[in-house]
Design a protein that fits this description.
The chain has 190 residues and is mainly α. The chain has one domain. Helices cover 90% and strands 0% of the residues. It is built from 4 helices and no strands. The termini are far apart.
Length: 190
């Protein structure tokens, strides 16, 4: 109860006494009434203090929950970044390694007595592996552009670049698969 409500309560009690025909108030009765109001104010202050503490506790819980969610989202984002980096590295390594292996094989074919016609057949697989490396490099650049878009709060652009970058990684894996299939078919015919 605030001071305005207290005065309204006292005025209301005086008006009630006046309406019953009383023209005077005993000092002991007034003192008892004010003591009653004081007790009521103490109870009201306690309730107010309890309400404030409940609010503070609820607010602290909400803040802790929001912090936990933010930390969880950050950890998930870090794990997605780590997985994406691993996928990019894998696509670069497998396509680049396959291209190097075919180049070494071609070097052996050209210096040896084996048929040179194999070189033409393997070059198709080499082109696929090199295209896979190119797609992986484009995906690496795409991750930079994606992060830049998210940093600038361009959510739609960042999302579109993220999908495009994932497409480049999958295209790189597809080039590896196609190149392996082509190289295996060529070498099986030897």
């Amino acid at each position: 109860m605030n001071s305005k409500e207290l005065l309204q309560t006292i005025n209301s009690a005086i008006d009630d006494a006046k309406s019953t025909g009383q023209t005077s108030v005993s000092i002991d009765g007034l003192k008892d009434y004010l003591s009653y109001l004081e007790d009521d104010l103490k109870d009201s202050d306690r309730e107010h203090a309890i309400a404030i503490e409940d609010f503070k506790a609820a607010n602290d819980r909400n803040i802790a929950h929001a912090n936990n969610l933010a930390q969880s989202e950050n950890e998930m984002f870090r794990s997605v970044i780590t997985a994406g980096q691993a996928a990019l590295k894998a696509s670069l390594i497998i396509n680049g390694g396959a291209a190097l292996a075919l180049l070494a094989l071609l070097g052996k074919v050209w210096t040896g007595s084996e048929e040179l016609s194999i070189a033409g057949d393997i070059s198709g697989a080499l082109i696929m592996f090199c295209t896979g490396v190119l797609y992986a490099a484009m995906a690496t650049g795409g991750t930079y552009l994606c992060q830049f878009a998210y940093a600038k709060a361009w959510g739609f652009v960042g999302h579109a670049l993220n999908i495009l970058t994932a497409g480049f990684v999958f295209a790189s894996y597809s080039m590896f698969y196609t190149g392996i299939h082509s190289a295996a078919s060529t070498l099986a015919g030897i």
